[in-house]
Amino acid sequence: MSNATQSVAAARIDSLLDANSFVEIGQAVTARATDFNMTEKKAPSDGVITGYGVIDGSLVYVYSQDASVLNGTVGEMHAKKIAKIYDLALKVGAPVIGLVDCAGLRLQEATDALEAFGEIYLKQTLASGVIPQITAVFGTCGGGMAVVPALTDFTFVEEKKGRLFVNTPNALEGNRVEKCDSASAQFQSEETGLVDGIGTEEEILGQIRTLVSMLPENNEDNDSFKECTDDLNRVCDDIAGCTGDTAIALSRIADNGEFFETKAAYGQDVVTGFLRLNGASVGAVANRSESYDADGNKTEISDGTLSARGARKAADFVKFCDAFEIPVLTLTNVTGFKATLCNEKMMAKSVGEMVHAFASATVPKVNVVIGKAYGTAYVAMNSKSVGADMVYAWDTAEIGMMDASLAAKIMYEGADASTLNEKAAEYKELQNGIASAAARGYVDTMIKAEDTRKYVIGAFEMLFTKREDRPSKKHGTV
């Protein structure tokens, strides 16, 4: 390493990578600007350490900004070093991880810094869908630098010192940081949909290591498997009680109970994340109506509907999985769309994005209906009609237009209670029952909840060689 070996930036790399695996690139690079007495200022490695190493034996490229050098500002050579790392990563097909701690663009280098910084945007765009990109923010990430994590696939922010913003809170009309700290890790995690996780520096680096172990190295990597030490036919005895918090249900299905949730604090009515099934990585999307903390206490209850944020979260996740040939599993338990003014502003657009993501994805897609599946919200959740390859349903599930009682009230308006109850029961049997959906081919197999793991593993193994052609086009517009 450079003479910044003992810096915080270098220590972060050491903590992230396997021991003694880091090889630095561009150690001797420094700023070449001379204006405003820049020649008198020392800038070892121009404020960013770049190189490569391994995580659990898998190659990754890393850059780590050093706030002790010119406040971690991005100058011309600083940006070019990051761009060079992207060039190498694209050539060999390996993920890029950025450890950000930056005071912004270097004013003394002006247009040179801007031009070089634009190269980072370009390289990130070229790398999108080709290699996984991960950003972790440990200090300031503001202004144009905030676009960098937005162009990556996964973002983590240190809970106390991490600051992520385009405009600082005090620059927003009518706002002060004391009123609403829009740059905080909590705000970015809960409100923007950009942040996948927050925590201490140690926790974030650990989360990144776990995430990398779940992901392929690139979009052509067909060897991202691990030996499965779990029983493929394991019965999930308690999964029927997990229909509320499907993050727990997914952990019951997963190999060795390991499920990695993404964007947990955003759009909490939808769960997204990764698990392994028979050693293969699978992306999961599930409806959620309850949340629990680490101590098992219920922290959130919703009405079982799909929100605009949840739909947007699902869409982004499915697009990532499709780009990297990661199969998608959905657990469906939804009664409709969330009816609030805030949600209505983006509902149609967000649900459209989700439908487009599911329908256009050509990876293996398996859906399990675990509860109520009503209306077009059910259709949007990876139903058979929008392209699911296999659809299972628990024998206790319901599929239909709406709740049977409400349907009876609409069809037999003004009828007495006895008639409404009779018609509701009839509607539930004829229209909402799983048997009726299976008879029409909308459900492939009715299963018991405890058998879910073995059925989805079998489905994905059967679909392993799936090939699906789509109309030739440059790209969709949704």
UniProtKB/TrEMBL annotation:
GO cellular component: acetyl-CoA carboxylase complex
Name assigned to this protein: Methylmalonyl-CoA carboxyltransferase 12S subunit
Alphabetical keyword list: Transferase
InterPro entries: AccD/PCCB (IPR051047), AcCoA_carboxyl_beta (IPR034733), ClpP/crotonase-like_dom_sf (IPR029045), COA_CT_C (IPR011763), COA_CT_N (IPR011762)
CoA carboxyltransferase C-terminal domain: residues covered: 231-462
Enzyme class, spelled out: transferase
E.C. code: 2.1.3.1
Matches recorded under Gene3D superfamilies: 2-enoyl-CoA Hydratase, Chain A, domain 1 (3.90.226.10)
GO molecular function: methylmalonyl-CoA carboxytransferase activity; propionyl-CoA carboxylase activity
Presence of the UniProt keyword Transmembrane in the record: no
Domain CoA carboxyltransferase N-terminal: from-to ranges: 1-229
Lineage: Bacteria, Bacillati, Bacillota, Clostridia, Lachnospirales
